[in-house]
Fe2OG dioxygenase domain-containing protein
Amino acid sequence: MSISASYPPAFRRMINDGDPKDIEPVLDKDKDIHIPVIDLERLNKEILREACKEWGIFRLENHGVPLELTSQLQEISESLLSLPFEEKRELFAAVNSPLSYFWGTPALNRSGDALKRGGTQASNVNMLEGFNVPLSKLPASTCCDDGAQHSKLESFRVLIEEYGKHITRIAVSLFEAIAQTLNLDLSGDRRSELLSESTGIIRVYRYPRSSSVDAAGEALGMEVHTDSSVISILKEDETGGLEIMKGEEWFRVKPVANTLIINLGDMMQAISDDEYKSVKHRVKKKDMTRERHSVGYFVFPERDCVIKSSNYKPFTYSEFEAQVQVDVQALGTKVGLPRFHPKSPLFL
Ligand SMILES: O=C(O)CCC(=O)C(=O)O
Ligand SMILES: [Fe+2]
């Protein structure tokens, strides 16, 4: 099977199926940047505070996720993602599970299906595909068939569940430490209201090996965005492509083996009263000869927990999410926190 048969048809005309050696290397214009490093076994609150305030993103080492688990998960994910497109689609539709397969956009609805985009962005295809996995629904999802692909899917489910336990543990520890740096009161159930484990989602992404490039000779993987989460945790492979905005400039974050990338999302920005920032980021692939694989984890407040802060009108995560979906469908893009800013002309 040619590799492009596993890509969504909308990607195929943009994919070069030739010998990777024939693909011209791309000029590398963006600058590299070293983001702060946090050691989970020896958490230093001052370094953590600085990383959240100045960067909104940091690298995590000594996180305790077994290497074996990550590589098994990567292997099975790659194997499922490289199935022929139609087979992948049918497999995920057939198992009647909360898992979904998506492509062309990271903006999904609550069922994990791609949102139709409006506005001038309607035709912008993000060159990515992936599986969306809501962790709390995972134990209930069962496989109905003992075919080879279904048993692969079952192994994927088991590995994701295990990975999800580790990553949830990390998110909770980091959130508690970050809350201390903000002197947040987490008494009673407040911790699990602000960071609700049951909302955790994992997304396994694949960015095609080579694709059409922009004027700068770079392939758009994922458009510029901030995450809506409290905390996001990214495991990327060694291909690279993640970029962050610092000041008014874009910088490339180089991959480092055995580490995770933590970024703060919009909910953390609001909870911290804008003290900590939800970092703007994107994926732009420069190495056209290889696919990029990454695994993202996103965790949110409880749906009806009210987030109060001085710069935004009080809102629940449900309201925020609904507004994002309305904006993506009407304007083609997320507006995010400015929608809830009382002084903003965007305030509804
Ligand atoms: O795949 C990546 O490296 C980035 C993913 C990301 O930013 C997201 O899913 O929000
Ligand atoms: Fe993101």
User: Anything to note?
Assistant: The CA atoms of residues 16 and 210 lie 6 Å apart. DSSP finds eight helices and 15 strands in the chain.
